[in-house]
Amino acid sequence: MDHLSDGLLFLALALPFLGALVAPLSIILLDRLGSVFLALFPIGGLAILFQQSAQVQARVPILFGFDWVPSFGVRFAFRLDGLSFGFAFLILFIGALVVIYSGGYMPRGSRRGRFHAFILLFMGSMLGLVLADDLITLFIFWELTSITSFLLIGFDHEREAARRGAVQALVVTGGGGLALLAGLLMIREGTGLSSLSLLLDAPDAFRTSGIFVPALLLVLLGAFTKSAQMPFHVWLPNAMEAPTPVSAYLHSATMVKAGIYLLMRMFPMVGDSAIWATVLPLFGGVTLVVGAVLALRQSDIKLMLAYTTVASLGLLVMLLGIGSELAVEAAVLYLFAHSLAKACLFMVAGSIDHGAGTRDIRALGGLRLKMPVTFAAAILGAAAMGGLPPLFGFLAKEEVYAATATADLRGILTTIAAVAGNALMFAVALLVALKPFLGPLPSGMRRAHETSPMIWFGPLLLGVIGLVAAIFSQTTHKFISNPMSPPALDGALAVDIALGFHWGPALILSILTVALGIVLFLRAQRMRSGIAALLARIGWGPDKGFDQALRGLVAIAWHITNRLQPGRLDIYMRVTFGVIVATVWITLVWTRSLPAVPEFPRLFFYEWAIIGIVILGILVVAFSASRLTAIVSLGIQGLAVALLFMLLGAPDLSFTQFMVEILSVSILALVMTRLRLMPADRRPWSKIVPEAGLAAAGGIGLGLLLLAVTQRPFDTQLAEFYETYSYTIAHGRNVVNVILVDFRGVDTWGEIAVVLTTGAAILALVRIRATKPDGRHSRKRRRRSGELHP
To answer: Disulfide-capable partner of 150 in 48, 170, 291, 432 (CB 3.0 to 4.6 Å)?
Structure first.
């Protein structure tokens, strides 16, 4: 591609972020019209992407990006193909409608600008995720969606439920993100391929690698947490504490579809593996049925829709696990139909709440005359969700049953799960579309009213699009369905299903689903009571388990912290040096890096004298009766090192070492004179022996580590560089000084800052005046423990 096209695609990716940047000011200046202005940003991005539709339909991927961290092979790289185009369309189009919807739904105030900024930030993160080609870039945008969704779910942070929902979503999806990172890094290291494009061009490289099973399981864990598969589904219903525009966007068409996108992207690489065909149908089928049952249990419209979203995600995962051409085609159609229908119904739920003051299905009724436009949108959304003709959902449901209805055991089980789940979801759709609007109007809702056009425009348009997309299905397949379908093992899929009479098993199963859905709708109250009683009998569930896990984690962290950080300096020292010693020795032994025993060199008499000084200093420090004497004697070791530097021809380094040792000993001695400590170390032998052993293990281990490093081949490239360029670039002949002042000038400045900070802390410490202790017993206890007591 040329630079102009690359620039336009980068602009499409950046437009939501630019919209977030100007959102607060736009809302302040334009009030509710600011939402319409901000919707132009995703619409502009969508227009840019549609300019590439011809190449996308031809299944020719468009790659663009630049090197980001070339030394590690990381690129800020993106891929626009049919799959990413379809998801980008849903993200930007539904996102634009949600932005407009937010302008009418959110109350006036300074927080509206912040809310729009968060929505657009999430939109840009999600867009970057589905367009990302480099594996590291994919992970970064994956985590950005978790962070921005945390901000949106917890937007009403004054409420405890909103805070809990936000934390739960962040913990579950963030934990899955870490698993995904581990899987992607394993893929990079195991295959040597760093992008999705390279992996798609060479799928055998991943399947035949030694890391295939663990890497795939980690990637699936990341996808399952993001797309709310059992038992990781708990975060999605609790995320309904967010404002309704968030639910209509994140949890119907975008964030929860991130895991589905990843599975669709991985399908051409691993879709024919046994682990894929086993894990996905199992988790997807269970999630479908359980999610649909729990949806019928709820009475809050948003929670009903949330659990049907869980069920729908399970259906998508199950279809991708089946892995046939029809199953992949059905997954694509159902993804598109579900996104339109669920975003529509979530907006309807918000409109009902806005106009009637409640979302409780038991308290609603008779709103058809008060809210006729919302009623029409609800009918269209529910018909699409239930798969009724002539909506696009009908085409999707026909393909679902055509894919599952096979004669083998797996086909029978998946068909039963699909019929049961779809029937339950159809009953929920009927409840959402009919119960609030039919029947008599409750006395408390005389003031119910139709909402503003900014609120009902989005759901009505989405409902109409679900109808138009089915009537003109060939155009929909041309731009969306066919390009999105991943290539099958024997070529590209051709989606051509249209409205019409298709007698066969799929139609029979569709009729059965509708009939069961109507029966469940008529018996909804009794079913709700029965499910509630069953759940009460079971008691424990993943949601309670999440709270228990967090409480256990906090308790474990408290106990560990209490043991390792009790406020005693001696314990801090033991723990610190224990970790260092363990790290050094485990590394040396585990990696078999113990050095060879070197030949003892022939030493001159003055070198023997320096060794004798070192040994003498060690003995004085170890057996000194006074702390002050021990500290002064500790400087002998540093002075001996300075003498060695001088003998080896480094007088400037030797001088620096002399100054450091003199300064260190002086500061320590000054501190000792100002702190009230026992003059001698009178610890019992039961403490001295283990700590002496720890000190010896640390000294010997670090000595062996240093010896092992010096025995490795010396790489002279860096030394030659400094020797060559110290004078020509920095105009200095003293290489050491040039390195410190010029080449590593910023590092040296940082070291000076550390020294100054330490000096200021020491100055503050020595100026502390002794305070009167609480009593004699506390003074003696502190002194015995060796604590610093000013």
So the answer is: 170
